[in-house]
Amino acid sequence: MGVKGKLIASIEVKCGGHLIHDIFHTNTHHLPNVTPRKIQRFEIHEGETIKNGSVVSWNYNDDGKDKFSKQVIEGVDPQKKSVTWKVIGGDLLELYNSFSITTACDHQWVTWTLVYEKKTEDIPEPLAFLDFGIHVTKDTEGHLLK
């Protein structure tokens, strides 16, 4: 059994969390255009964009490396404006036994929560991925403020 961890980062946004939520969770397919340095492709494999059980994949750039992630949407809370994505395939599972990402948006804040289990103790914490989320948030905010 690996070492479990949880990382949380919140970033204040000037455009309002509800607008970020709209891009992240309702118009997710626009993210490759909003933040092309970070996200190159988003694809829906099963279901709809933001529905429990939908399966999606991403081609993205994390810490200067092109990566892939396949995820199932595990939880949607429209009142909290949050979605939980459970990783079921891709680069993250090379280092982690399990990995989930929750994004939540409220008023002027966007919060990223990563819950993971490292395969071994010497695997680093996913700080680069948390930084990736912060950059995607900033790029999205910049796009909305134009």
Secondary-structure blueprint:
Elements: E1 4-12, H1 17-26, H2 31-34, E2 39-46, E3 55-62, E4 65-77, E5 82-90, H3 92-95, E6 96-106, E7 109-118, H4 127-145
Antiparallel strand pairs: 1-7, 2-3, 3-4, 4-5, 5-6, 6-7
Instruction: State the fourth-level CATH superfamily.
Output: START domain
Strand content: over 45%
Number of domains: 1
Largest sheet: 7 strands, antiparallel
The CATH architecture category equals 2-Layer Sandwich
Output the CATH class name. Answer: Alpha Beta
Shape: globular
Number of helices: 4
Give me the strand/helix succession: EHHEEEEHEEH
User: How would you classify the helix and strand content by structural class?
Assistant: alpha+beta
Instruction: Give the helix level as a range of percent.
Output: 25-40%
The fold-level CATH name is: Alpha-D-Glucose-1,6-Bisphosphate, Chain A, domain 4
> How many E strands?
7
Strand order of the largest sheet: 1-7-6-5-4-3-2
